[in-house]
Amino acid sequence: MAPQGNPTVVVIGNGMVGYKFCEKLLAKSTAFNLVVFGEEPRVAYDRVHLSEYFGGKTADDLLMAPTQWYHDNGIQLHLGDAVQEINRANQTVHSRSGLVQAYDYLVLATGSSAFVPDVPGVEKKGVMVYRTIEDLDEIKAYAATARSGAVLGGGLLGLEAAKALLDLGVKDAHVVEFAPRLMPRQIDTAGSAMLQSKLEALGLKIHLSKATSHIGGNGKIDALHFGDGSILEVDMLVISAGIRPRDELAKLAGLEVGMRGGIVVNDTMQTSDPRIFAIGECALHSGMIYGLVAPGYDMAEVVVSQLQQGARAFTGYDMSSKLKLIGVDVASFGDPFIAEPHSRSIVFEDAHNGVYKRINISPDGKYLLGGVLIGDAEAYNMLLQTVNNKIALPPHPEDLILGARGGEASEGAGVMSLPDEALVCSCEAVTKGMICDAVTELGATSVDAMKKCNKAGTGCGGCVPMVKDLINGTLTAQGAYIKNVLCEHFDYSRQELFDLLRINNIRTYGAALDHFGAGDGCETCKPAVGSILSGLWNDLIVKQNVIQDTNDRYLANIQKGGSYSVMPRMAGGEVSPQQLMAIGRIADKYKLYTKITGGQRIDMFGAHVSDLPNIWEELIAEGFESGHAYGKSLRTVKSCVGSTWCRYGLHDSVSFAIEIENRYKGIRSPHKMKSGVSGCVRECAEAQAKDFGVIATEKGWNLYVCGNGGAKPQHAQLLAGDIDKETLLKYLDRFMMFYIKTADPLMRTATWLNKMDGGIAYLRNVVVNDSLGICADLEAEIELLIKNYHCEWKEVVENPELRKQFTHFVNAPKVKDPTMEFAEMRGQRMSKAW
Amino acid sequence: METAVAVTWLPVCQATDIPADGGACALVEGEQVAIFNFARRGEWYATQNLCPHKQQMILARGMIGSTGEACEPKVACPFHKRTFSLLTGECLNGDECAIQTYPVKVDNNTVYIGWA
Asked: Domains of chain B: which residue ranges?
């Protein structure tokens, strides 16, 4: 609590910007008495992420800060008590409850209210606005019995509200927009068309160029009537047609307000009364009302500076924004609409993938003026910087939206060329210079550390990829070699340790720790060293099972509830009827849930740990062996039907897939490897999404490498084309061993290639042209691994000491875990939800 | 101020039943207890088998190790790698509540758990 005698700052409004002002003032000074009046019954909450309230977040989750924060910081807080009058002569405010509060400075952060158009029938039941948590509760309650709903307003907030209706179960959801396009202030007509098709695919129905003439219904809404005579029957309406600044208090107090609303302020955020400031959505600056939160935060910063006799001023704000709207990236920057003759546009439209990109370039081709991105906004950060810093365009500006095709694109190199004043985090106003300084002077070498230094990335989070690139770029520029050491116990990269263990003939984890490590190891270095040892010697991992990660420890994939899954190998996806019946009999006997996997084999779930050796004993007796589904190893080599049956097949893809899978089965690698062999260009085995993939050509086979499926799909790249099988296997041997020796722990081949200096050209040089002179060694090393292959499950089944370890209770081996429960689905077992 | 609590030493299994530098689960008075043979340090630890994160009986199958300057012994849950101190039971990398630890001693190749 500030001592008496300190000037009192009264803040009217406890919304996001009102809260931020308090936070910023307290960060800079304790010389002010803060009193806050809020009209809503709760403290400031994140209105920007309001739609998450329907997704399960509670009101408390959305709070900017808990009520305790205000008390802890000595803020006098009056909630649910709106200020009704400002007495400028006496410098006091009067609240609804009768409180009279004196002020030295007054900050108006009253925000705005939802604009309700003057349409007859708007007072009917079932017509709501979308602004406060109370509004959302009303919408939620009403949606429970509505079959159809509409949102009036196709802007940012309207589209969010429409998604909310869908999420609430209103199956028939419509968006009605007065303008001829969606988000008319941010995107152009073509961008709107792309966005519209994506939204329609999600089930929203879009109506553009519709003026609502009246709302029909008997006391309760039943339809919207439009100016063109058409009618839309709906059970509820959410109005999200814009905002109107809350300037009533200011008007009443005689402060200057704009003709269409808004409290007039100058560059230092002062109203026509120098002791009264206005910030956020209620403020009118140079004829603009800013409906985004970032400029509001900037205005708060200006007032904090002014209160301390500082010189910071507000001179307008860049309204560029990037957001994820209903899963669709939408970005708008600079001047998105500027057209001939003042600019020339380059447009990329891909209706197949739902991507639209437009950039507007100055007629002399030198500068980027603005643009729109729909469906893929990855380039947003760099494009925004290019506009704002007037960075000269490359000779082929179309590359900015088409991406570097067929070349070596070094990700993130562009950020280092930004000027120091470039604003990287606009929510918290952090420049490139501030970030680089934090790296060099404050030692912030991670995003988390950076967040603590200057809050970059703590707002919307959109700048985090750029912050990461700047950190790495700065460290590289300093000459720091960014080495990924294993963990606190080993101060070496995986590649370094690989060589050390090989040269010193280290064969156990204990020996590795003794010679090259410190401390007693952990769950990071144990599996990593285990992987290295396997890559060097390919000894049975069951011999060092306590250092293996979960799945490798028990040679099975652990599932919810503590049961395991069993997957025998089915090379190339080929299986005989006899084998199918054997699997069926065994799965039925042990009551396992069966399913076909993406890797073209059968998985059996629900095995107790003590049943595993018995199940495998039966599988091995039927001629099966481990599928290594649990290992960071080769998984499967998928195949298409191929020339043996398919009328299109050029070569026998199935035989080749089986040959490849059997060659490399059991080999452990830095991360799992998945593969496929397709018999023709139709690519039914999806080989191009694999760590290495093979596709038949007229003349032979093409070998592709470093593709990936999963969360970050990436197509494999051609390593060599039209080669014969022997050559292909030779290149594969070298490629695989090179990956095993040089990748970081848990690094997929795709990431490994992306981070490789020189990219695919370099990799091809090493593997195909033997530029490093190591190919003979690589071939010998992998030959050793192949020669040393044994089925590890066979080893467990035949070894009573190892078999003993597959029990739940060491002192009651016949007792199964009593807490393991199963449910049922479609006639098969299922795990119980946790 | 510590108060002494009388424990009964219950023989549970053979020391050789627990893999060196690993763990195994024992049924003690109807409870699931994870026993760890930290051979590298010549130390034994025992904790509850239930991981508080998703309530799974699995900690005995986790990897053990040490962390920090003081080399505090820990175990990592196989499911999501939540780590717990083997000394205090405290969760070292999350908000989970601490796990129960039990006194453990080995005498003549028999493992005893101190039961209160």
From this structure: 13-115
A190 and A47 in one domain? no
Is B12 near chain A, with CB under 8 Å?
A: yes
Using CB atoms, pick whichever of B12, B41, B58 lies closest to residue A811: B12
Contacts of A570 (CB under 8 A, 6+ apart): A579, A600, A601, A602, A627, A636
Distances (CA, A) of A485 to A489, A490, A512, A743: 9, 7, 15, 12
Q: Do A545 and B22 touch (CB under 8 A)?
A: yes
Give CA torsion, residues A649, A650, A654, A656, to 10 deg: -170
* Higher-pLDDT residue of A459, A204: A204
Report how many domains make up chain A: 4
Residue A743's identity, in one-letter code, is: A
Whole-angstrom Cα distance, residue A47 to residue A292?
11
Q: Hey, which residues does A768 pair with through a beta bridge? A: none
> Is B73 near chain A, with CB under 8 Å?
yes
Burial of B48 by CB count in 10 Å (0-12 exposed, 13-18 middle, 19+ buried)?
Answer: buried
Where in the sequence is the domain holding A265, given as residue range(s)? 8-112+245-307
Q: Which residues of B touch A520 (CB under 8 A)?
A: 38, 40-41, 64-66, 71, 73
Class (C level, CATH) for B13-115:
mainly beta
Residue A742 and residue A623 share a domain: yes
Q: pLDDT by residue (tens digit) across A334-349?
A: 999 998 889 999 999 9
Q: Which of A527, A810, A834 is closest, CB to CB, to B24?
A: A810
Mutation for A interface: B13, B18, B27, most A CBs within 10 A: B27
Using the predicted structure, report yes or no on whether residue A738 has a pLDDT greater than 90: yes
Look at B62 and A523 and tell me if their CB atoms are within 8 Å: yes
Within this chain, do residues A101 and A203 fall inside the same structural domain, yes or no? Answer: no
In a shared domain, residues A18 and A142: no
- Hey, what are A599's tokens? 């890797």
Which of A157, A143, A161, A145 lies closest to A204 in space, CA to CA?
A161
pLDDT in tens, A461-505: 778 878 888 898 888 777 765 667 888 899 999 999 999 999 999
Write down the pLDDT at residue A411.
Answer: 45
